Structures are given as structure tokens and as C-alpha cells.
Amino acid sequence: MIEPIIPPRSLMSAAGRAIGDFSMIREGDRVLLGLSGGKDSLSLLHVLLALQKKAPVKFGLAAATVDPMSPDFDPSPLKGYMAELGVPYFYESQPIVEQAETSMQGDSFCAFCSRLRRGILYRTARENGYNVLALAQHLDDAAETFLMSTFFGGKLRTMQAHYLNDKGDIRVIRPFTYARERQTAAFAQSGNLPVIPENCPACFGVPTERMHMKTLLAQLERDNSKVFASIKTALKPMLGVGVPEANSPPPPPKQAQR
Fold first, then answer.
1. In what order do the strands lie in the sheet with 171-173?
2. pTM of the model
């Protein structure tokens, strides 16, 4: 067994504020973390482990990885790491890349992959009695999504911080809603987290609209160091749309944990 790595106070504070502002984690919750093996999800793993020890509410924590069976992406080393941490862990393999080649219709690979992976995470949560799914998107992701939705979709939308899935049985939370990508990158490096290279199998090396938005925001931040603080304030009403009411304790798992 290894001890979890203590995240820096600034990252813990950003996560704690978001969790409190949007009522993300409640007494008795069983939280399943979507663990891709990237810097963001590994950082969130250690933040949630630290919160488990000090938070005033008691909650369970497990993690799940979806292996898309891409030759460029192998998350299997996470199995040993999670065993050493002693965190309940679920590992699901599905040939998403192969499925995309035959089933994708008028959609981007990224959207197709995300939809399938989310469905697998929902199923894993249901089968094992987890009522909350934690995802590791951060403020940079929310800002990029807002710009893409505005510029290319004509809609004022972004990633919600806390919402109920379509079936109404799983709450989805993003505790890093207020955190910056540079914070997770710095923690991953300083904590020597076992980041899996190329944690997204979609079109490696090909520029995407999200990357264009990331570049644009970086340019804006160089000219105005407070641009992300302004963006966070502007996005906050959209981030909190539809925060679910307090619900009953999660149901018992349908099958034993693997």
C-alpha cells in the first residue's frame, strides 16, 4: 500500500469552493471517479482522497477507467497503481476506436468516444451502487466549451458543474470547475503522478477546434492576467443550472465489486 499524495492547498481550495457552491458531495454519497489516467483525473483522485479524510460529510470513493482499446493509449498501468492506493477500481475495455470506424455518423470522433465512455461509466456506477459520477474537467475546459458553443453553435452553453443524468439516477459533478489546468499540470509533475501519455485517443496530433480555443484564451490571458477570473464570474450562472435537489442515499450495488 502507498499513501495518497497531498495536493497543494490552492488546488484543494479551488475544489472545496466548487463542491460547496454547487452542493456536489452529500452525506452518504458513493462517488465514482472517471479516471482516464491524464493529469486532471489523477489530480482529482488525490483531491477526493484528501477530502475523504477531512470533509465534514462522509462519502465513499471508487474509480473507473474505460480502455478504448487504441494502440496509442494503454491505461492498464493504472491497475497496479490503484491496487497500491487501495481504492476500489473498475476497469472496462471496449473497442471504441473500432466502433467509431463502423458506427460513427456525422459526429466527431471526440463526441462519439465521449458518449460511449460516459455510457460505460453510468453502467458501472449503476451496477455497483454509486450515485455520483465525478469528472475532472476544469475551468479551462469550461471556457473552451463556452467559446466553441458560442462561435460554432450559436448558443450560450458550457459544462455544468453539477447535474442529473437523463435517466435521473446519477448525479454528475465536476469538482475542478474553479481550478485551472496549469494547477493540475503542476501537481501532476510535482507529485510524480503516473500520468498515462496521450490520454485521449482521438486523432492524435491533429489540431481541433478546442485547441484553437485554448490558444485564443492563452493569448488573451497574456494580455490580461485576470481574464479567467472574469470568465469564471460570467459563467457561474450557467455552471449551476439544474443543480439537483438533495436525494436519498444511493442504492446497494447490484453485484460485488471487482
1. 89-93, 60-67, 30-34, 132-134, 171-173, 162-164
2. 0.89
Nine-digit cell at 125? 456506477
95 Cβ neighbours under 8 A, 6+ residues apart: 68, 69
What are the residue ranges spanned by the domains of the chain? 9-239
The cell for 221 is: 490571458
pLDDT in tens, 234-255: 999 999 887 898 754 555 665 4
Q: What is the pLDDT of residues 136-183, one digit of tens each?
A: 999 999 999 999 999 989 999 999 999 999 999 999 999 999 999 999
What is the Cα–Cα distance from 72 to 164, expressed in whole angstroms? 33
Q: What is the CATH number of domain 9-239?
A: 3.40.50.620
Q: Which helix (H) or strand (E) holds 89?
A: strand 89-93
